[in-house]
Design brief:
Helix content is about 15%, strand content about 25%. With about 60 residues, it is α+β, with helices and mostly antiparallel strands.
Amino acid sequence: MIGTGWRRSSYSSGNGQCVEVAPLAGSAAVSVRDSNHAGLRPTRHSRAAWTAFLRSPGVHRRPAG
């Protein structure tokens, strides 16, 4: 499960809570990882599931700090 072209979340604000996402080559899925632990195995999600998550209430709130 190798993502190609990791992109960091636009909501990462330098507070150490960063998520990266990459499309999976030849698949209708995305790979998601914690950029602070890039060596750990990323999780795999269908594009539909990832889109539903991004559209869910509260996802785009920045953490206090």
